[in-house]
Amino acid sequence: MPAPALRRPIILPPKLQPGDLIRFVSPASTPERDNVMARAAVLESWGFRVDIAPHAFDRSGFLAGSDDDRLADLNEAFKDPAVRAIMATRGGKGSYRIADRLDLAAVKADPKWLVGFSDITILQCALLRGAGLASLHGALLVEEGEAEPENAALLHHFLTRWGEVRITARLDEPTALLTRPGAASGPLVGGNLAMLVTAAGWMLPNLSGTILLLEAVDCQPGEVDRALTMLCKAGHLDGLAGIAIGQMLPAEEGRDAVILRVLQEHIDALGLPVLGGLPIGHGERPLTVPFGAHVRLDGEALTFAF
Asked: Residues 118, 135, 148, 266: which is the catalytic one?
């Protein structure tokens, strides 16, 4: 059964100022230390202070430490008044184990950005559903000490100021073929398809009136079909305003066409405006977008505007 209607208005956290503190946390799997330190250096070059949660580099199987320790790091970051934004070190697996234990009272008392994607999608669902809080779907990408320019500029923009941003679909993205004419607007909700299915029934926000964002990695055609069928049959896709499709990366090379056919079948059945080809997800040069913020999708101009 779909969740109650989204809280309105959706809360956008305060803009960051020079000298503000950003904390890295690991709600899911353990990151590579060098990668985290490289991203910290970029954030410091932007004028922010950076620290790292106590258990960020813990390791327990595929998890960054115990559930209690990962949860404590995340909740403490929301409670600490010195912390002005929270950045997940990586996705992986495990955020779903703690998503129902977020300290929502602390979140509401001091809203701040959570930056992450992939497995972190379920935490972003929990924040939007439980506290009406927007977050940033994406990550700071750093390679050989240098931030990817377009990604970094967009992340910096959303952290420090708010003004219209327009993203244009990339025609070289395979999902560009799924675009349907029409325009739609509403809060942007969604992200990693596997996490949306995991969240359904207990952490997934009500999607009525929203623009649903879909992206996936290592996906199989049957898994995509099963996931979308489940979301549809359970009523979670009722009342959608439109669909935004990011990067859908197949588990096996050469399977893009099969996955696109599966997506096309479900999209046609819904009959909504669709914008594909969005550089959002696990592919090349992905961009950061605000989860929960109002977005306008235009399938004819091929634009995505906040």
From this structure: 118
Of the residues 135, 215, 236, 266, which is catalytic?
A: 215
284 an active-site residue? no
Residue 173 is among the residues annotated as catalytic for this protein? no
Q: What is the percentage of the chain residues whose pLDDT exceeds 70?
A: 100
CATH code for residues 21-160: 3.40.50.10740
Give the architecture-level CATH label for domain 166-305: 3-Layer(bba) Sandwich (3.50)
Residue whose structure tokens are 């509403």? 186
Whether the predicted model's global pTM rises above the 0.85 cut: yes
Based on the residue annotation, tell me whether 118 is a catalytic residue of this protein: yes
First to last CA, the chain: 29
Q: What does the chain come to in residues?
A: 306
Same fold for the pair 21-160 and 166-305: no
CA distance 303 to 86: 29
| Per-residue pLDDT at 63 | 99
Domain ranges of the chain: 21-160, 166-305
